[in-house]
């Protein structure tokens, strides 16, 4: 049986994540076809056979099944509105969203299938489960979350640190955060639980952005054709 490729719009296409997504779609059998690459500004109409669109031209993109968004919070509202208008699914990894934007995403998920995650790696999905369990088993222990990223990352603490913190909080811990911005670190998260005389450290280190891009592509292929709703990445990976 042959399945038609998922028609993808990549939002944030000229960025670090956007470029990783486009390369993986070119290199491997991802089951996806990129029909539009959108960025704040574009220098050419077509790159490697993929039509390019500036953010201001978003309304004119061709039909697509799923938008994958790794951009910035200021670009998020437009791609969310477009997905609703076109009845397309949205996979977003953009961090630093405001509370209002998160509420808009919740509302949108009554109309379209949507999956937002601060981190699309399988390892971090598992780390969430471990942190939640540790917090439940260790009442009263100190909980600290230390994250490190490259110097061009804009938000701090990272979206992943905040999501891990929410998992710890749900288990009863009161997490504190520390952020390091240095060099070209792709992404590291350490969750430490400490009490008198002992410490537990749970850590995840990403050395390559492809883990996030592969996760987002996988989620996109699983989201096409689903009923509207807010999907957890852990259940789709
Ligand atoms: P980047 O700065 O390298 O790229 C940002 C991209 O967004 C560029 O293509 C830029 O043109 C585009 N953009 C900016 N403003 C826009 C607008 N108004 N409309 C349309 N496009 C716009 O950033 P990056 O390192 O690729 O990261 C992008 C986002 O993804 C960040 O929020 C980052 O924290 C997040 N991220 C998430 C994960 C995850 O797994 N969820 C992993 C890595 C990065």
From TrEMBL:
Binding site for NADP(+): 41
GO-annotated molecular function: 4-hydroxy-tetrahydrodipicolinate reductase; NAD binding; NADP binding; oxidoreductase activity, acting on CH or CH2 groups, NAD or NADP as acceptor
UniProt organism field: Thermomonas fusca
PROSITE patterns named among the record's database cross-references: DAPB
Binding sites annotated in the UniProt record for NAD(+): 12-17, 93-95, 117-120
All copies of domain Dihydrodipicolinate reductase C-terminal, residue ranges: 123-237
Pathway in which the depicted protein is active: Amino-acid biosynthesis; L-lysine biosynthesis via DAP pathway; (S)-tetrahydrodipicolinate from L-aspartate: step 4/4
Name of the protein in its database record: 4-hydroxy-tetrahydrodipicolinate reductase
Sorted UniProt keywords: Amino-acid biosynthesis, Cytoplasm, Diaminopimelate biosynthesis, Lysine biosynthesis, NAD, NADP, Oxidoreductase
Taxonomic placement: Bacteria, Pseudomonadati, Pseudomonadota, Gammaproteobacteria, Lysobacterales
Catalyzed reaction equations: (S)-2,3,4,5-tetrahydrodipicolinate + NAD(+) + H2O = (2S,4S)-4-hydroxy-2,3,4,5-tetrahydrodipicolinate + NADH + H(+); (S)-2,3,4,5-tetrahydrodipicolinate + NADP(+) + H2O = (2S,4S)-4-hydroxy-2,3,4,5-tetrahydrodipicolinate + NADPH + H(+)
Purpose of the protein: Catalyzes the conversion of 4-hydroxy-tetrahydrodipicolinate (HTPA) to tetrahydrodipicolinate.
């Amino acid at each position: 049986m042959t399945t038609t490729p998922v028609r993808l719009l990549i939002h944030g296409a000229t960025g670090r994540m956007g470029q990783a997504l486009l390369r993986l779609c070119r290199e491997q059998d991802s089951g996806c076809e990129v029909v539009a690459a959108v960025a704040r500004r574009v220098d050419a109409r077509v790159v490697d056979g993929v039509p390019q669109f500036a953010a201001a031209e978003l309304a004119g993109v061709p039909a697509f099944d799923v938008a994958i968004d790794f951009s910035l919070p200021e670009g998020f509202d437009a791609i969310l509105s477009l997905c609703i208008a076109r009845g397309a699914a949205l996979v977003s990894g953009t961090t630093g969203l405001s509370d209002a934007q998160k509420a808009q995403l919740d509302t949108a998920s009554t109309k379209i299938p949507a999956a937002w995650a601060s981190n699309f790696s399988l390892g971090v999905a598992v780390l969430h489960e471990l942190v939640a369990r540790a917090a439940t088993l260790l009442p009263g222990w100190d909980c600290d979350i230390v994250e490190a990223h490259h110097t061009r990352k804009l938000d701090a603490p990272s979206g992943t640190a905040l999501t891990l913190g929410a998992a710890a909080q749900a288990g009863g811990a009161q997490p504190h955060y520390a952020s390091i911005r240095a060099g070209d670190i792709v992404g590291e998260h350490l969750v430490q639980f400490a009490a008198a005389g002992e410490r537990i450290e749970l850590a995840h280190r990403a050395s390559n952005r492809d883990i996030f891009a592969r996760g987002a592509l996988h989620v996109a292929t699983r989201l096409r054709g689903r009923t509207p709703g807010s999907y957890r990445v852990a259940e789709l990976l």
